[in-house]
Amino acid sequence: MPKTVLITGANGGLGKECARQLALQEGVEKIYLGCRNPKKAAAAKQSLEESTGKSIFEILIIDVSSPTSVRSAVDSLSEPIEALVMNAGGIGGKNFRKITGDGVSQIFAVNVLGHAVLAEVLLQAKKLTNVGIYAGSEAARGVAKMGIKRPKLETASEVEFSAICDGSFFGNAGDPMLPYSYIKYMAALWMSALARKYPDVRLVTVSPGSTSGTDIGENLGPAMKFMFTIVGPKLLPMFGLMHDLEAGAKRYVDVLTDASYKSGVFYGSKKPLLTGPLIDQSTIFADLKNESFQDNASAVIERFIK
User: Fold this and answer.
1) How far is it, in rounded angstroms, from Cα 267 to Cα 138?
2) CA 294 – CA 198 distance, rounded (Å)
3) Quick check: 7 and 87 in contact, CB under 8 A?
4) In 176-266, where does DSSP find H-type helix?
5) Domains in the chain with CATH codes
6) Phi-psi bin for 85: left (phi > 0), alpha (psi -120 to 50), beta?
7) pLDDT tens digits, the chain, 306 residues: what are they?
8) Helix (H) or strand (E) segment spanning residue 59
9) Which of 142, 157, 161, 221 has the highest Cβ tally under 10 A?
10) CA nearest to 60, candidates 68, 50, 52, 70
11) Cβ(155)–Cβ(164) under 8 Å?
């Protein structure tokens, strides 16, 4: 059981629930709540202390869409952490296609770039000592029942991955779920490459599944928003396409605390579900275990980091 944990996006939703569940585990001594907004962070800390009866939460101000903010947050850590939960993300808001100062789209920045900086800086400084997990998504292998097609690249070259980073791969696509699925695919490849680079730390991608109680549906198109926020919580659980916040966060906790979940693997739901037991997603989409693809995705991300 890790004694110290850092969770990004911890002021609400999956991040906050993960913090609550971890606080109730024996042996956890400190949980850093990685949050962008100080006021929301303070409210989350108070709520967690009240619900768990524990005073083990510490706020760490971090904006994962900003590499500068990430580096500053890591510098402020006075001691190594044993576990990292890279949970923050989403579809990048209404301006998900906007190019940031780092040359990537907003949706890529919030899901991947900041977390890539966070993981690399922590690992290089030996400030992450045991396990790190990244919040993946079954969208990375396609979800036919939700109308999400499997990512398809011609060559999986660095050129194609660069086009995913800056959004040019998608043209003027108005649906953020299109780039989201490719970005989560690329992130899973990057995590597998990172695991080979740092074999002494267990680095795993795990999808929390389709989870009610999150805000991912707020900036989707009308049909998908209706599905996620209105229809979803009532009907999708009956078809194995949605579970509650507790179940989604428990996936994080299970992978953090159980070393049988192997480094470099992307775990998610069985096809065609978005809930239930976790399995290796490369058994559904073999490209996920292609080391050449992993290395190309990683090389491109490292260029944007530098």
Assistant:
1) 9
2) 14
3) yes
4) 177-197, 222-226, 232-235, 245-257
5) 4-305 (3.40.50.720)
6) beta
7) 899 999 999 999 999 999 999 999 999 999 999 999 999 999 999 999 999 999 999 999 999 989 999 999 999 998 999 999 999 998 877 789 999 999 999 999 999 999 999 999 999 999 999 999 999 999 999 999 888 999 999 999 999 999 999 999 998 877 888 999 999 999 999 999 999 999 999 999 999 999 987 655 555 556 555 555 666 666 777 778 899 999 999 999 999 999 999 999 999 999 999 999 999 999 999 999 999 999 999 999 999 998
8) strand 57-61
9) 161
10) 70
11) no
Residue at token pair 């693809």: 293
Q: Which residue has the tokens 């001691």?
A: 79
Q: Quick one: tokens of 111?
A: 């899901």
- Tokens at 158, concatenated: 């660095």
Q: How many residues does the chain have?
A: 306
